[in-house]
Design a protein that fits this description.
about 250 residues, 16 strands, 3-stranded antiparallel beta sheet, 2 helices, elongated, 2 domains, alpha+beta, bacterial flagellum, Flagellar basal-body rod protein FlgF, cilium
């Protein structure tokens, strides 16, 4: 009986953890460039003596859904939408290099080019990009940032630098606790994306299917309730067995 209770308990735990993943996806349904996290379970046999009848249901996270989100035209010069498998390099809070597809950019009061979450955008050399005071800013399709200095004409347009946009396959990246992507293998150097790597005046929305996530949440809730019911039934059967043993004694 304890084996059945163990299997039901680990299954309930995995269902509860999967609900957390779905809830996180729902919370980011309006986050620009967000990629839905995937969740699944697998059977893991507990090693030990005796028959291999004790199975642990384990939650696994096979990565994220790399499908593109909805494209939204904004017309804003600092809004960019990255091409498939292209990622914008930013500086995380701990100073490390991380990647995002949130192309909603802004310039701080001290001239730093940052994302909507305040992460500094990195240039090709891996340094935070600073933009001098300008009356006009233009981002090229290859990530080049150009400006027209304040009080000058169009003929004075100057290149400030080029944003670091890397080309990475989904399996090369893993999501960190801060929501930013990082290299799955720290020893691998992701290459700079060549050619036209982005479009300006557009933003990529989240690829979370809100309706599908709600259905999945309901399914996980019912699955959790079923597993808890199995645990309660097993406990009731154990109590009944104990009573029969006492009566028989």
């Amino acid at each position: 009986m304890d084996k059945g209770l163990y299997v039901a308990m680990t299954g309930a735990r995995a269902s509860l953890q999967a609900q957390g993943t779905v809830a996180q996806n729902l919370a980011n349904v309006d986050t620009k460039g967000f990629k839905a996290q995937l969740a699944a379970t697998e059977a893991f046999r507990i090693a030990g003596e005796g028959f291999p009848s004790r199975i642990d249901a384990m939650l696994i996270q096979p990565g994220f859904d790399a499908s593109p989100g909805t494209q939204m035209v904004t017309g804003r010069s600092l809004d960019i939408s990255l091409r498939e498998n292209n990622w914008l390099a930013v500086q995380a809070a701990d100073g490390s290099q991380a990647y995002t597809r949130n192309g909603e950019l802004a310039i701080t009061a001290n001239g730093m080019l940052v994302t909507a979450n305040g992460h500094p955008v990195l240039d090709e050399a891996g340094n935070p990009m600073a933009v001098p005071p300008a009356q006009s800013i233009d981002i090229g399709n290859d990530g080049t940032v150009s400006i027209i200095p304040q009080g000058e004409g169009p003929q004075t347009m100057a290149i400030v630098g080029r944003m670091r946009v890397v080309d990475a396959q989904p399996e090369q990246l893993t999501r960190g606790g801060d929501g930013l992507m990082r290299q799955a293998d720290p020893q691998t150097v992701l290459p700079q994306a060549g050619g036209n790597s982005l479009s300006t005046g557009m933003l990529e929305g989240s690829n979370v299917d809100a309706a599908g996530a709600l259905v999945q949440m309901i399914q996980l809730q019912r699955q959790f309730e079923m597993q808890v019911k199995v645990i309660r039934t097993g406990d009731d059967m154990a109590q009944s067995s104990n009573q029969l043993l006492r009566l028989g004694g």
